[in-house]
Amino acid sequence: MRYIISESQHKIILNEISGEAMRKVAKAWFKMQISQGKDPHITDDLIAFVGITPWGYRFVELLETLRHFLKDSLLQVVKNKVERTYDTNDYPEISGGYDFKFNVIIKEFEADRLIINADIIPGGKVTLIMTNGETMDLIQAVWDNFIGDEIYIEVVDIINDILEKEKIVYYTGYLISLNKINF
């Protein structure tokens, strides 16, 4: 006999999944990704399959499961995904009038969080769309008395948006906190 489960019933069933069942499903998911030649990571499909809300309290448990699964390779995965040079030209939908490169350095590990610093590589530019369309050296713009604070805030937003787009959290199991930007 076949049973038909409606979408609303499916959601109820998934919401009742235990923490242990979620961990088993996630580990099987990660093993499947490895067998397909992929790096183990959390996907939106996995989140939906185990019936949790992204960034909800159960999501933190899923992040912990990934970190535990990666065990011995975790440090190397984190370094490979995080510590590298990023170029805003690779993210035109995020960078707007900004053109700069930055390196990310891990400052420290906390229980579920990476504290990072970003080093801006000299030579970056910003086009001042809000004024006359002038292009200005990024470091000079940050230190400008009139626009510096706004430029700094936008640089922070761009860096955070790029790191989010890279889905570092989904590959490392660590939340990211930008500690400091060095110009």
Please render the helix and strand layout as text.
Elements: H1 7-15, H2 19-35, H3 44-50, H4 57-70, H5 74-82, E1 85-87, H6 92-95, E2 98-99, E3 101-109, E4 113-120, E5 125-127, E6 135-137, H7 138-142, H8 148-165, H9 168-172, E7 175-182
Parallel strand pairs: 4-7
Antiparallel strand pairs: 1-3, 2-5, 3-4, 5-6
Helix pairs in contact: 2-4
Describe what you observe in this structure.
This protein has helices at residues 7-15, 19-35, 44-50, 57-70, 74-82, 92-95, 138-142, 148-165, 168-172; strands spanning 85-87, 98-99, 101-109, 113-120, 125-127, 135-137, 175-182. Helices cover 48% and strands 20% of the residues. The model has no long low-confidence stretch (mean pLDDT 91). The chain has 183 residues and is an alpha+beta fold. Helix 2 crosses helix 4 (57-70). The longest helix is centred in the last third of the chain and has 18 residues, at 148-165.
Q: What can be said about this structure in brief?
A:
By secondary structure, the protein is α+β, with helices and mostly antiparallel strands. It has helices at residues 7-15, 19-35, 44-50, 57-70, 74-82, 92-95, 138-142, 148-165, 168-172, and strands spanning 85-87, 98-99, 101-109, 113-120, 125-127, 135-137, 175-182. It has 9 helices and 7 strands; from the N terminus they run αααααβαβββββαααβ.
